[in-house]
Amino acid sequence: MSGSARSAISPFRQPKAVWAVAFACVVSFMGIGLVDPILPALSKQLRASPSSVELLFTSYLVVTALAMLVTGWVSTRIGGKRTLVAGLVLIVAFSAAAGASGTIGGIIGFRAGWGLGNALFIATSLAVIMGAASGGFSGAIILYESALGIGIALGPLVGGELGGISWRGPFFGVTVLMAVALVATLVLVEPTPKPSHPSSLTAPIEALKHRGLATMSVTALGYNWGFFTLLAFTPFQMHLGIHELGYVFTAWGVLVAIFAVFVAPRAQARLGTPLSLYINLGLLALDLLVIAAFTTSRTTLIVAVIISGAFVGLNNTLTTQAVMLVSPVEKPVASAAYGFVRFIGGGLAPYVASKVAAAVNVHVPFYIGAATVAAAIVVLSTGHSLLTAAEGGEQEIDSWLGASTSEAISSAVGPKPLEARPVLVAIDVTVDSTDVLAAARALAETLACPVEVVHVIEVDVLAETVDDRDENTDSGAVMNAAITSLTNMGLSAQGHLLRVIGTHGQTGRRIAAFADKIRARTIVIGAPRDAEIAALFDADFSGELLRHAKCDVHVIADQPAGRISDPAA
């Protein structure tokens, strides 16, 4: 969102329906590291080879990858709530079956069904939260980010504690928690409408024909190969107990969450997406080389694994953002295509690592992982120009031209100067922009200049998840109303609908850059009303706008009805 003030309502003061889905999100994200602490115990107690145990990751991720191709097709036909409930039902059923199974083959098969359920759930959970949230988009996103961070950090800890009782504990723990979330979702979440345009079943595959999307997807495949080699194969090399493994990967998960939510947006803002990715992938490759060289050193292995959490968190957010930047197709379709390719790499890597270790030695799988991450850097470089152009380019969706006459202004304030520099006013579709438009009108009349109206649609990238809301319809209606209001007053007005992929801070910088492009005389915005907690999760919109603007910025405070501030007075 941009322009006018955002709600000051706490992001954690939400309806019960939002809390039900957020709770399910925490449990879902726990699954990333949940089974890590019990891998060696499973191998020992079920008399299974490491390669068989690694198939727990392979079955889960490969099915998730294939499911990415159909989740959009399903959700656009049965609606968000039904898709969400279907995913929860599958997770409850298959996690319980995995816990009750007595063979490694059974657990592997049930983990595949779990992966299908998780794909359906993740595909719709953010949209359902945003639809039910009372604090606007910002509050919903903050809550989702909180669930993501808590889930990633708690997964290994819960897996270690429950796994210390029995290897079945983590599976049954998920069953109970997700069953609670399922009941709450059924009771509290209202039915969601079906999208007006159903997604095509072949859309994700067709999307991979685009060079930019294909390049980023293959880059992610190479990265995921290295990442899941590290995540799934290092527990066997540490020779630690279940509880100790849980603590190690909890520390890893905390770094993943912190760097995905807090650090990645700031790295992107300071260095840009391409350079941030090059540096981060290079550091992850070096980390894997250290693990490869010192695989038999428990201390080195533990430290290197924990540190890798920072690189994983950064990369998950930065790569997803890069995919959204270069993709010429709808964001949900791009996300599905990209997820399909990258999860294939993540699913195959653990199984291959265990086979290579058995055939050669335990060092080689990590050398291969480092090589795949290095190869990802090379692949990324082939699309460098596309990513740079997409990040730096002006991505204007639509414009609205107001029919006005210069005579109307001339009669009120005198002759209009040639090529007058405009007043730029930023509006928001979620709040009343009357006061902001009135202030811009007063300035334009006094300065005898035109008005440029801008609204920015944000596409938020949350770790590996994309907020795919479509505001175009609402934005168009609000923009048309704003332009009509200004032109009815005799002003020369034009509107611009822009898109930003990233954070509120990037929105501020985007508006500042657009103002510089059109040589705006001043920028008019509403006063920010973000709750204090928002500053912990996102760069501040107004702060970044003020920092980067090359012209004056007028901030219009909220006014009681009938009292419109006039910055020209």
Written description of the protein model:
This protein has 20 helices and eight strands. It has helices spanning 16-30, 39-45, 50-78, 80-100, 104-132, 136-165, 169-188, 203-207, 211-238, 242-271, 273-293, 298-326, 331-359, 364-382, 384-392, 406-413, 434-447, 472-488, 504-517, 541-548; strands at residues 396-401, 423-426, 451-459, 461-462, 465-466, 493-501, 522-526, 552-556. The strands form two sheets. A six-stranded mixed sheet has the order 1-6-3-2-7-8, sandwiched between helices. Strands 4-5 form a two-stranded antiparallel sheet. It is globular and about 80 Å long.
Give a short summary of the structure.
This protein has helices at 16-30, 39-45, 50-78, 80-100, 104-132, 136-165, 169-188, 203-207, 211-238, 242-271, 273-293, 298-326, 331-359, 364-382, 384-392, 406-413, 434-447, 472-488, 504-517, 541-548; strands spanning 396-401, 423-426, 451-459, 461-462, 465-466, 493-501, 522-526, 552-556. A six-stranded mixed sheet has the order 1-6-3-2-7-8, with helices on both faces. It has 569 residues and is an alpha/beta fold.
Poorly predicted parts: 1-8, 403-418, 530-539, 559-569
Main sheet characteristics? 6 strands, mixed
Termini, distance in Å? Answer: 29 Å
Q: What is the helix fraction of residues, given as a range?
A: 55-70%
Number of strands: 8
Rg calculated over all Cα atoms: 26 Å
Q: Report the total helices.
A: 20
Helices and strands, in order, run as HHHHHHHHHHHHHHHEHEHEEEHEHEHE
Alpha-beta classification: alpha/beta
Mean pLDDT: 82
Q: Which sequence of strands runs across the widest sheet?
A: 1-6-3-2-7-8
> How would the global form be characterised?
globular
Portion of residues in beta strands equals: 5-15%
